[in-house]
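Subject: Protein record for review, amino acid sequence with backbone structure tokens
How to read it: Take the token row as a discrete description of the fold.
Enclosed: The protein record, placed directly beneath this head.
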Amino acid sequence: MKNDFPVVGARTNLSASVAALIEERILSGDLGPGDRLPPEPELSRQFGVSRSVVRDASQALAARGLLSIRRGIGTTVTSPDSGGFTDAAFLMLVRGDATVREALEARIEIEVMVAGIAAERRGPDDVALLRDCLRTFLDAGARSDVISVREADLAFHGAILKATRQPVLTALLGPLGEIIQRTSMTPLATVRSFDLEKHTYIVDAIVAGDVAAAREAMRVHFLFMEDPIYASVHAQPLRTVPSLMEIREEMQHGSA
């Protein structure tokens, strides 16, 4: 790791310029995960700016997930993580006017595509994980445990995404997990509404490597949304639907 930085010239926003230079070093690989930046006074001298400018730049990069600032440890480069992107993308949807139905429609198209890719690329480890997720799903259903079924459903669809063996696709579709939670957490959702048997067909098709069957099984899985009983729920803004965590906390509070 190199600790020398170019001196920042006279620009309108010095902290933004310093942040851009540090970010460039991170993205180029000159600064890797775990690398510690020089102390604030040293960076101030190297960049030719005040310590407050360096502090603002570091805080801006920390807010974006590129740096970690910890008292007594210093400022270090973080490991690559799509969490920030996931949170930002999902918050954009929740703060907008997207309805549950609109989110479901997008989710269907994405998951049908993902199921087909998973059928084409799944490996032995993916098959084992899918079968394990399905077993957990069915066990929760047999106990009529709605919360566990919802958690198992999220893990099940996450396993399908993992089976695509497409790290870029997995990163870009990070917000899908949150969308799955919100569109599965409707007040009308019951163990029966998850239609556990249809999940078995999805796994069978993916394990068999049948792309067309996997896509069709996933699409059939979502036919429940055409039931008129869900019309009022689907019209709701996505932001009004509680998350799994909120539902669990409410249940725990109610039983206290």
Notes: DSSP finds 13 helices and two strands in the chain. The two ends are 54 Å apart (CA to CA). The mean pLDDT is 83.
